Amino acid sequence: MREMMKRLSILWLYAALLLLFASCEKELEPYSMEECRLNFRYYYSFYDRWMTTEDLESSDDSYRTTVYSFVYAGGVERDTLWFPVQTSGFLSDVSRPIALQQMTVPDTVDNAEEGIHYVAFDDPAVAHLYQVPANTDTLSIPVILLRDKSLDSKDIVLRFGFKDNGVFKPGFESMSYRTIYISARLSRPVNWVTEYVGEWGPRKHELMIQWTGNRWDDDYWTEFLATDSNYRSYINQWLARRLEKENAILLEQGEEPEHEADGTPVEFPPIPWY
């Protein structure tokens, strides 16, 4: 009898739990995220991974910034840069449009002008490039840069971000924009590290490209900084010796040693010891 009562108690407990779960299930709303959003993705080269919002909120703007020069483009009149993007919200079985807008950068170099420095984001000829394919949550979108004569004498800045188009809204604020500094001359790379080659200068940059065969742009600096300290020290010493040799030749010819346009000598100081 006692065993039977024990079994009945267990059955009543199971029944009560089933009723409880059923009532909870009715109260729970199904997962829904009707608002779809867009975020740029930023690569954390030092750690070989994509950056999080926490990474970006604690870092400077360099990870959102690209420095581009038509100097490296071989005389082309337009060039395309691609930027990784990720969606949030449900996937769709149809392609969906992306809307971009230029964002003015105050108190800085001249802001880019659409149709002059870049192809307008709403140009019908490029509309097909600003689409999220069906059943996709990651993609890359292009920005088409144009070589204008103004780039020969000054840097132009293009900052752009997502615009609410009724399909997508901008995502996290820290992942909502990118900035491109555009020129047709050598510009200081974002990743330039004075510890290894000294202060940046256009003549120094030009000589480093000529002597090593490398661009020393942001992409190459990323590779260079990933090498071991012995190699970086070797390059520092090699550049200093090459400069000493070239300056000796210039002096023999009665010319001044290598210098920038403002007269600042080109130098490759030794890597400091800490």
Q: Care to describe what's here?
A:
With 274 residues, this protein is an alpha/beta fold. The protein has 2 domains: 36-183, Immunoglobulin-like, CATH 2.60.40.2030; 194-252, no CATH class. Helix content is 28%, strand content 22%. The protein is built from 6 helices and 13 strands. Strands 4, 7, 8, 11 and 13 form a 5-stranded mixed β-sheet that branches. Strand 2 and strand 3 (49-50) form a beta hairpin. The protein is elongated. The N and C termini lie far apart (84 Å). Mean pLDDT is 88; it is low at 23-31.
Number of strands: 13
The quaternary organization reads as single chain
Q: Give the CATH H-level superfamily of the largest domain.
A: CalX-beta domain
Overall form:
elongated
Any idea of the CATH class of the largest domain?
Mainly Beta
Number of helices: 6
CATH architecture of the largest domain: Sandwich
Look at the structure and give the mean pLDDT. Answer: 88
Terminal residue distance = 84 Å
Structural class: alpha/beta
Beta content comes to 15-25%
Q: Kindly report the CATH topology of the largest domain.
A: Immunoglobulin-like
Q: What secondary-structure arrangement, pairings included, does this model have?
A:
Layout: H1 2-27, E1 36-40, E2 43-44, E3 49-50, H2 53-57, E4 65-69, E5 78-88, E6 96-97, E7 100-103, E8 110-111, E9 131-132, E10 138-146, E11 156-162, E12 168-170, E13 177-183, H3 194-197, H4 202-212, H5 218-225, H6 229-252
Parallel strand pairs: 1-12, 4-13, 8-11
Antiparallel strand pairs: 1-5, 2-3, 5-10, 6-9, 7-11, 11-13
